[in-house]
Design brief:
This protein folds into two domains: 4-117 and 347-352, NADH Oxidase, CATH 3.40.109.10; 132-335, NADH Oxidase, CATH 3.40.109. The protein has a four-stranded antiparallel beta sheet with strand order 1-2-4-3, covered by helices on one side. A four-stranded antiparallel beta sheet has the order 5-8-10-9, sandwiched between helices. The protein has helices spanning 4-15, 54-72, 132-143, 155-174, 176-183, 209-214, 218-226, 229-243, 258-277, 287-292, 303-318; strands at residues 26-32, 35-40, 76-82, 92-100, 148-152, 186-187, 197-198, 247-253, 281-285, 327-335. The protein is an alpha+beta fold. Helix content is 40%, strand content 17%. Bound molecules: flavin mononucleotide. The site of flavin mononucleotide has 20 residues, from helix 2 and strand 9.
């Protein structure tokens, strides 16, 4: 039976999980002293780019990974039951059962200390080169969760995948639906906002911040798009940071149903914690992978562009022989940097309890 302090530590570890735009779309409920139920929060999920809960499922996967790593450090072993009520309840993602365990953890795998340290770093440049052994550890972390990892380390291989990332990220500023979704999560005046992202974590140069704030209005963004606004943003937020980084990695999965995505969320978090243990900074680029799954609910005029992104992602992933039929879910830009000073906040502990 878990003590109150153990339960609290598990939930604290869960809350540190990353989520798209820091939406924190998770809720918890202790069914009994050994069983934790995990839910998607309906108020914080289901937007256009979270259609079919792809983004929420990745976040819930990261939550599960954090909880399991934390439980193993007690040590407790765990069993996860995914979708305990099947299709009847699409928001009820998992139950985690905690069982006594005698087995001490292997130190090399002990990622628990990285859970509170892991964060997103959107600054650049990142330094390199990255040790081959570090890439091997990241690959291993993905494989431990039934996923795989492709790495792009030389300038030539990075440049080969850059266009699809740039194209996908640019659509986020061209589509009114996606633009509004993105800007609704950015806080311009409140550095202590408990959800979403204060402007300080976006690493936008101070002189450019007033213009970025104006772009929150669709009329301004739309006007700027006529003179290449989205392309300029894509250049600044994708091309420059990526070309000034020593590596990209892409986490791939073997199918695209919800269980695949949740497990890939676990893999992403495990890779990210492993990167943190290696002293590596990480920035995710989610748009190309998410768009390529085909569930985005944005304007029809972008359908052809989204299809082209899906095709390009397919050929990137399937050009490697041992990953035929796989899907690329998330790119991570990685490299060495000074410690992050500004990171996003979290809501209060009690707000995550499912009533
Ligand atoms: C599914 C998912 C998609 C994300 N997509 C992006 C992205 O495209 N660009 C980015 O800079 N950060 C992205 N992030 C990082 C989140 O914005 C970040 O995790 C969140 O703001 C919390 O901050 P933290 O990671 O520092 O704890 C993503 C995270 C998740 C889980």
């Amino acid at each position: 039976m878990l003590s109150e302090s153990q339960k609290q530590r598990l939930i604290n570890a869960a809350i540190f999980a990353p989520s798209a735009d820091n939406s924190q779309p998770f809720q918890f409920h202790w069914q009994n002293d050994n069983t934790l139920a995990l839910w998607i929060d309906p108020k914080r999920s289901g937007k256009a780019s979270d259609n079919r809960f792809v983004l929420s499922d990745i976040a819930l996967g990261a939550v599960i990974e954090n909880i399991i790593i934390c439980a193993e450090s007690f040590p407790l072993s765990t069993q996860v039951e995914y979708f305990p009520e099947g299709e009847q309840n699409e928001l009820f993602v998992a139950c985690i059962y905690f069982l006594p365990s005698e087995q001490a953890l292997n130190d090399a795998d002990n990622l628990v200390d990285e859970i509170p340290k892991r964060c997103t770093d959107r600054r650049f440049p990142f330094k390199g080169p990255i040790k081959t052994q570090s890439i091997e550890l990241l690959t291993n972390a993905a494989k431990q969760r039934d996923c795989d990892l492709l790495s792009f380390t030389g300038k030539k291989s990075i440049k080969a995948v850059l266009p699809v990332i740039q194209k996908a990220e640019t659509i986020r500023f061209k589509s009114q639906i996606l633009h509004q979704e993105l800007f609704s999560t950015v806080h311009f005046g409140n550095p202590n906002a408990e959800e979403g992202m204060p402007i300080s974590v976006l690493a936008i140069e101070k002189p450019a911040q007033p213009l970025f704030k104006q772009m929150k209005k669709w009329s301004v963004m739309n006007f700027m798009n006529r003179i290449g606004g989205a392309a300029i943003l894509g250049f600044r937020s994708v091309r420059i940071p990526i070309l000034l980084s020593p590596a990209l990695v892409l986490i791939t999965m073997t199918g695209k149903d919800r269980l695949n995505v949740i497990k890939a969320g676990r893999a992403i978090q495990r890779v990210w914690l492993q990167a943190s243990q290696q002293g590596l900074s990480v920035q995710p680029y989610a748009a190309p992978g998410i768009f390529s799954l085909g569930y985005i609910a944005c304007e029809n005029e972008f359908k052809a562009q989204l299809d082209a992104i899906a095709q390009q992602m397919h050929s990137i992933v399937n050009s490697s022989n041992d990953s035929k039929g796989n899907y690329g879910l998330m790119f991570l830009r990685i490299g060495y940097n000074k410690p992050v000073v500004q990171r996003s906040n979290r809501r209060s502990f009690d707000s995550f309890v499912k009533k």
